[in-house]
Every structure is written in C-alpha cells, then in structure tokens.
Amino acid sequence: MTRILKLITFDVTETLMMFQPPVAVKYAESAKQFGINVDVADVLKNLKGQMKLLTKQHPNFGRDTIGWNVWWTQIVVNSFKLAQPSSDEKALHQLAKFLIDEYTTTRCWALADGAMDLLNYLKQKNIPLGVISNYDDRLEPTLKSLKIQSFFNFILTSYSAGVMKPDRKIFDLARAQIPGDILPESCLHIGNSLEFDYLGAKGAGWNSAYVGPSTDEVLKIVSSGEVFKNLEELKKQLKIV
C-alpha cells in the first residue's frame, strides 16, 4: 500500500487497544468484590443484549438523552440484574461506578501488538495523526493511560462530534481538524470494523485499511491490498511517499 497522505486516523477499540482481560471476565471478577456472583457466560449474553437495547433507545451513548455515565450505569446494572435478580441495588450501582472508572486504565486495556511501533514510524514521517472513534468522553484519559495520547493531533469521538461512524460527517469533521484544504483522497483511516471503519471511510472518499482476518466475507468487500491481519503487517506494507 503506497500512498501520498496528509492525514492518517485510527479507530481505537480492538484496533489500537485491546480488551484485557475479556469484558465479561472483567465484569464477573469485579462483581465478586461487591458480593455479586454470576456466571461469565450469563454476563456476556446479557451485556450483548443490553448494549443492543440501549444503543437503539439512546444512540451514541445517550448523548442527546441520558448522557454516557447513566448509559453505562444502566448497561451494568441491568446486565447483572438479569443474571441475578436478587442482587443488591446499592451494590450494583457501586459496581457500575467502579467499572466505568476502571475502563480508563491499563487494568482493562492493552496496546495491540505493533501499535507503538506503527505510531512511532508514522510520527517520524511527520504526517498528522488522529483518532475517529465511536466512544464517550473517557477516551482521552484512556489513551493517556496507555501512553499514546501524545501521538495524535486530535481525538474525535462520536460523543463530542454528535455523529457516529459510519456517517461521513464524522470523517469530514476529522479532515477539518487539520489546517489547509485536505482532500479526502489524501486521508487514510485504519480500523477493524467493515461497516464503521472500512466502508465508513470509503463512503467519505477516504483511503481505508481493514485490520483483521481476511475471511471470505471480508474479501468480498475489501480488496486484498487493503486487508492486514494486524498492525505489524500494516507497518511492513504501508509505504509513505
């Protein structure tokens, strides 16, 4: 992949930073500290259901309705209530606050393999770097805890922008963060979601790189030269001119 680029942006969740440990495991282990014992499989199932429900009822982490903090509190409380209806209400809210804070730390996140090397390489090329993420207001402190915040010229979340990927408006807003008239074809977005990252960027006229397995489904949508199994492979093949 050889490109003349004036802006490179990244998705973060499961692109630059990975859940560690898995979310359901972290939730179930944390619950024990508050006297709540649930099965990991139940937590995982309930979390998926609650995420889908709240995303429909209150899009973009409740930005225009209940706000992200209440949004996540409801996700946690309702997920555990479904798994253990007799759970103490006060303990559930304490657990929710604990997890909301915990997910800004390295106790829940780790950098993806090759992330630091890729960021250092791109920074040496003097290309502006940014983040475009469907995320709430906790992203900046989270990136700071992972020691990568300083690599980015801007960090654009769906919550601050008022629009979510794959809407082209958030990609247009990202371009506007950099002085000068940067054309879409001079921009590259890197992410792990076909819908939100790869197709979202393509729909905005950007170049796109998909990071993930090259399954038959993926190759029906993404050209082989734009699929990379991980960030290490992307760094090897990305030629900046």
Automatic annotation (TrEMBL):
Transmembrane segments: none annotated. It comes from the Eukaryota. Pfam families: Hydrolase (PF00702). One of its GO terms (cellular component) is nucleus. Gene3D superfamilies: HAD superfamily/HAD-like (3.40.50.1000), Haloacid dehalogenase-like hydrolase (1.10.150.720). This is Rhythmically expressed gene 2 protein-like. It comes from Thrips palmi (Melon thrips). The gene is LOC117654029.
